[in-house]
Amino acid sequence: MPGSEREASERQRKARKIKPQYAEGRLVKVARANSQPESELIEVLLLEEGIPSMSRRSGGFDVPDMLAAGPRDVLVPESGAEAAREALAPHAQPQTD
To answer: Hey, which CATH number is domain 2-91, 3.30.70, 2.40.128, 2.30.30, 1.10.3470?
Structure first.
């Protein structure tokens, strides 16, 4: 089963990057992405800092027909929320009114 071995090694590679002190507590929202590819980029940035994360479709946008389109919430464990916000601060988009 070469496919499952490759998948397992990818999960192991990601797990080795996670800092245990950032993996405790309930999931909290730390960012909002405009699409799935953008949320995946945010997840990679957080993983490079040792912070585990996941994304889910934002409320009201859980429509399967949208595929990768539509906003996503990026969630991290509560213990890593402050570090995640600090890690993402240099990458934050400027607010426009």
So the answer is: 3.30.70
